[in-house]
Amino acid sequence: MANVLVIGAGGVGRVVVHKLAQNKDTFDKITLASRRLESCKEYQDEIKQKYNVDIDIAKVDANNVDELVDLINKVKPDVVLNIALPYQDLTIMEACLRTNTNYLDTANYEHPDTAKFEYKEQWAYDKKYKDAGIMALLGSGFDPGVTNVFCAYLQKHYFDEIHYIDILDCNAGDHGYPFATNFNPEINLREVSSNGRYWENGKWIETKPMEIKMVWDYPQIGPRDSYLLYHEELESLVKHIKGLKRIRFFMTFSQSYLTHMKCLENVGMLGIEPVEHEGCKIVPIQFLKTLLPDPKTLGPRTKGKTNIGVVAKGIKDGKEVSYYIYNVCDHQEAYKETNSQAVSYTTGVPAMIGAKMMVEKKWFKPGVWNMEEFDPDPFMEELNKQGLPWHIQKM
Ligand code: NDP
Asked: How far is Cα 47 from Cα 156, in angstroms, rounded to an integer?
C-alpha cells in the first residue's frame, strides 16, 4: 500500500487522481497539492462523489523548495508525482532529494525564460539520487513516456537491432473553437513554434518550424498532415536504443491551427520576454494563455480520437522488418471516465502506471532514469488494463 503526493491540479492532474483512486488497492493515501487550493478542492469533491475515496489536499508553491520540503515532510509520501509545469521539475527534484523521497514527472525541465528543454539538469541529479538510495522516473506521460516504452518493447521482442524510428502523434479531436490548445497553451505553443530537430547518423539536424511534412494514414482516423518537431524523448532514446541510425517525431496539425499560430507569432503574441503595456509588464504568451480556452474546459466539447505510436524498422534474424505499435484513445470515452479529454487522459494514465511500477518495486533502482531503461513488459500489461490498450502490426 502506497502513499502518494501529486503536485499540480491541472488537466493532467485531474486524470492522475482519478486513476489513483481507481487503483486504491495500490494507493491507499493520496494527497493533491497545487498553487490554488480551489483547483484541488474541485477534484477532491469529484473523487469523493465518483469513487467514495477521500483524498487530502494542500496548497503549495512548487517554485519554492522550502515550501515543498515542509509539505513532503508532513505528507511523507512514497513518491511525489510532479504534474505541475516543466518549470517546476528542478525545485521538486531538489525537495525530493532533501527529504529522501522518490520522484516522477511527465515532461523535462524547461527554463521559463528560454524556450528550450533538455534533460541535462535533471540527469545531473543521478549521482545524488543514487547516493541517497532514491529514484526519479522522468517523462512518464504518453510522449515522452509510453512512446519510450513502446520502443523498449519493440527492441525486446521484435528486433535484434532497430535502425529507424518515427514517433507519430495525431490528435484528431475537434473542440469546436476556432483556436485552442489541448494542454497548457504556453508549453504547447512554445514547443510547436520552435525549430524542428531530428537525429541521423550520430548528428542532430535542425529544421525550420513545420519545414518537413508527411501524410500518415492513422488507424481509426485516416490520413493526416504530420509535421516534424523536436520532442524530448528523442534525447534519451538516441542514448538508449543501440544501433539507431535515425529517429524523428511527427505531430499532426490542421491548416487552421497553423494559420492561427502563424498569425499570433507574426504579431508577437508568442513572445516570452516581458513587454511594457500601459505602465505594467506583461509576457505576451502568458497573456494569450489568459485569453484562450482553459484546456481543462475542453473535455465536454471534444469529439474524435487520438492515435500515438511508433514505427520502427530494423533487423531480426538477419532479415529487414518493420513494425507499427500504437494506441487509439477516444476523447468522449476519456471524458466519461475522468471528466477530461484524451490529451490529458493519455498523459495521466501513464503517470499513474509509472508510480505503480515504482511503488510495487517492479521498476525500482536508485538514480535518475528514463522510461526505456526498464523492462517494458509490466508497464505494457498495465496499459491494457488501465484504459490505454495498444495494437501492433507488421508493416
Ligand atoms: P495545466 O496548466 O492544466 O496544469 C498545471 C497545473 O500546475 C496548474 O493547474 C497549476 O495549478 C499547477 N501549477 C503551476 N505552477 C505551479 C506552482 N508554482 N506551484 C504549484 N502548482 C503549480 O497543465 P497540464 O495538466 O496540461 O500539464 C501538466 C504537465 O503535463 C505539464 O508539465 C505538461 O508539460 C505535461 N504534459 C506531458 C505530456 C506527455 O505526454 N508527456 C502531454 C501533455 C502534458 P493551479 O490551478 O493550482 O494554479
From this structure: 38
Expressed in angstroms and rounded, the spacing between residue 8 Cα and the centre of ligand 1 is 6
10 C-alpha to center of ligand 1: Å? 5
The dihedral through the CA atoms of 36, 21, 71, 346 has a sign that is negative
Mutate to test the pocket of ligand 1, among 117, 183, 310 (most ligand atoms within 8 A of CB): 183
> What are the pLDDT digits (tens) for 66-103?
999 999 999 999 999 999 999 999 999 999 999 999 99
Other CB atoms within a 10 A radius of the CB of residue 261 amount to 21
Q: Please tell me which residue, 188 or 5, carries the higher pLDDT value.
A: 5
Quick: pLDDT tens for 306-323.
Answer: 999 999 999 999 999 999
Q: What phi and psi values does residue 288 have, to the nearest 5 degrees? A: -60, -40
Task: Say whether pTM exceeds 0.90.
Answer: yes
> Which residues lie below 8 Å from residue 124, measured CB to CB, with a gap of 6+?
none
Q: Which residues of 37-52 are buried (b: 16+ CB within 10 A; e: fewer)?
A: bebbebbbebbeeeee
In Å, what is the CA distance from 294 to each residue of 175, 282, 288, 337, 340?
A: 12, 19, 11, 20, 12
Q: Is the dihedral of CA 235, 237, 241, 246 positive or negative?
A: negative
Residues 99/93, Cβ–Cβ less than 8 Å: no
User: CB of 34 within 8 A of CB of 60?
Assistant: yes
